[in-house]
Design brief:
The relative contact order is 0.10. The protein has 8 helices and 26 strands. Helices cover 16% and strands 27% of the residues. Helix 2 runs parallel beside helix 5. It folds into 2 domains: 261 residues, CAP (Pathogenesis-related Protein p14a); 244 residues, 7 Propeller (Methylamine Dehydrogenase, Chain H), CATH 2.130.10. It starts with 6 loop residues before the first strand and ends with a strand. The protein has a 6-stranded mixed sheet, sandwiched between helices. The protein has a 3-stranded antiparallel sheet with strand order 9-10-11, with no helix packed on it. A 3-stranded antiparallel sheet has the order 12-13-14, with no helix packed on it. With 521 residues, it is α+β, with helices and mostly antiparallel strands.
């Protein structure tokens, strides 16, 4: 049921007919009405909880009535900056109601293309709730979003046979300045039951318990356990009004022509104007003399760290700073990236922690007595804490990292060389140089303990779903357990320097040599 020039958010089940479009153009919106869709082949389950009821916008973004010149700024065209200021204030007030950290926009947000605006606000909403960011705006998905916005005035669909899950949102008939942020408010905070209270009506939320309630929010926060891509678009509806679309895909379509914009690009753009919260804002280096390890971001890039704390970027990853030129009490032994790829931690052998980008400091063992030197660290899945592991298997927890046990004080055949976090259980694994695995609140998938090795194991990394792990020896030999697939190794091949570690990189992995050489699989 269409009301007089509505603000509509639609899912896969609804299309606007020509007669409905004609009626919608008659005047300003009297309400916000919504329909929802779910992923075409998958299910929800990992998303944060939804509000118990709609959260009315404060300040008001969409009017209940109109009287001449009393339109809110978000319905006066063009007042983009003023609207964005009001909308982000309303979004952060809703965050406060939910107990979620506030978010901030880049200074140039109002001047960005709409598809980038939608991409940024969606990822900021996800990250603030501990969800992994969407990798990027993919050209093929963006084309589907643009077609839906400009031709059909409805949610995007993907034609033909597709083997991956996807979901979509549509917002229509809003004032020219009321774009990405006002749509986001409707999707995220007024998608439930109670339209008469919040000036919002979700077509599929037909009762307080209807399955369609909060469907748009579930799409935005959808977390199927694999990386997501996105498309977004805006198009004119006529008479100064617009509609926009979003589509989220579980995997990259085979017809994809690449990314128009990635989260890594966004982080790099804001990193250029933000000082690192770490102990130094030194720039990154072209090379390392003695590497200590590597870390990958979620988007194909990453970093190699030297024992002196200098950083070399890989694959277009942004530089968040390094320790180049600084005096260290102990050498750096590892690097760990934040889950969103927006920063990294460096850990020294004395347990000192150095933070860069959005990596937060939760404490360290620097200056405290240790039985054995620290040899590695791992981040919790939400990035709000980390573990350190020492060569004797002792575990030190910081932030929201839980202690599930350790090998500290227990007999070991060989020293521990590193650790990896289990994203599915919140536990962790330790690996010793003989390939022995020690599991804590995590499943045991196997080990090389007691088996002959040509060279000692030097590093470990876990699958992003927690269903397996790999470790690497100093000769580049790779050992896979659980669901980890063998993609190749340097075992038996000539190396310019011994391998010192490995890092999971999307669906593959890197091996890093002591001289900083990277071997990709």
């Amino acid at each position: 049921m269409w009301k007089h020039l509505i603000f509509a958010i639609a899912g896969l089940a609804s299309l606007v007919t020509p007669s409905a479009q004609s009626a919608i153009k008659a005047g300003p919106p009297a309400s916000i009405e919504m329909t929802t869709s779910a992923p075409s082949s998958s299910f929800y389950g990992n998303e944060p909880p939804n509000p118990t009821q709609n959260i009315p916008a404060n300040p008001v973004l969409a009017p209940t009535t109109f009287s001449g010149t009393s339109l809110p700024p978000c319905y006066q065209y063009p007042t983009t900056q003023q609207c964005d200021n009001l909308a982000i204030e309303a979004i952060n007030n809703a965050h406060s109601v939910e107990g979620v950290p506030p978010i901030s926009l880049p200074n140039n947000f109002s001047s960005l293309p709409d598809y980038i605006k939608q991409f940024i606000i969606v990822n900021l909403e996800r990250i603030s709730r501990g969800e992994p960011p969407i990798v990027g705006v993919m050209a093929s998905l963006d084309a589907a979003a643009q077609t839906a916005a400009s031709q059909y005035h409805s949610d995007p669909v993907l034609s033909g046979s597709v083997s991956f899950a996807y979901a979509s949102n549509w917002s229509g008939a809003y004032g020219g300045a009321a774009g990405a942020l006002v749509s986001d408010y409707g999707y995220m905070y007024e998608d439930g039951w109670g339209g008469s209270v919040s000036n919002t009506s979700n077509y599929d939320c037909t009762s307080p318990s209807a399955s369609g309630c909060w469907g748009h929010r579930d799409n935005i926060l959808w977390n199927p356990g694999v990386p997501l891509s996105m498309g977004a678009a805006e198009a004119s509806w006529g008479n100064g009004y617009y509609n926009s679309t979003q589509i989220f895909a579980e995997a990259s379509p085979s017809s994809a022509t690449g990314y128009l914009y990635t989260w890594s690009q966004y982080l790099q753009s804001i990193g250029q104007s933000q000082s690192s919260p770490g102990s130094s804002s030194s720039s990154c280096s072209p090379s390392v003399s003695v590497a200590a390890g590597a870390a990958a971001d979620p988007y194909g890039g990453g970093w190699v760290v030297g024992r002196s704390g200098n950083i070399v970027t890989q694959g277009g990853a942004p530089c968040y700073g390094s320790l180049s030129g600084m005096h260290l009490n102990a050498p750096i032994v590892g690097i760990t990236a934040t889950p969103d790829g927006g920063g990294y931690w460096l850990v020294a052998a004395d347990g000192g922690i150095f933070t860069f980008g959005d990596a937060a400091f939760y404490g360290s063992m620097g200056g405290k007595p240790l039985n054995q030197p620290v040899v590695g660290m791992a981040s919790t899945p939400d990035g709000k804490g980390y573990w350190l592991v020492a060569a004797d298997g002792g575990i030190f927890t910081f932030g929201d990292a839980a202690f599930y046990g350790s090998m500290g004080g227990k007999p070991l055949n060989q020293p521990v060389m590193g650790m990896a976090a289990d994203p599915s259980t919140g536990g962790y694994w330790e690996v010793a140089s003989d390939g022995g695995i020690f599991s804590f609140n995590s499943p045991f998938f196997g080990s090389m303990g007691g088996k002959p090795l040509n060279q000692p194991v030097v590093g470990i990394d876990a699958l992003s779903n927690g269903q397996g792990y790999r470790f690497v020896a100093s000769d580049g030999g790779v050992f896979d357990f659980g669901a980890a697939d063998f993609l190749g190794s340097m075992g038996g091949k000539p190396l310019t320097a011994p391998i010192v570690g490995m890092a999971l990189n999307g669906t593959g992995y890197w091996l890093v040599g002591r001289n900083g050489a990277i071997y990709s699989y």
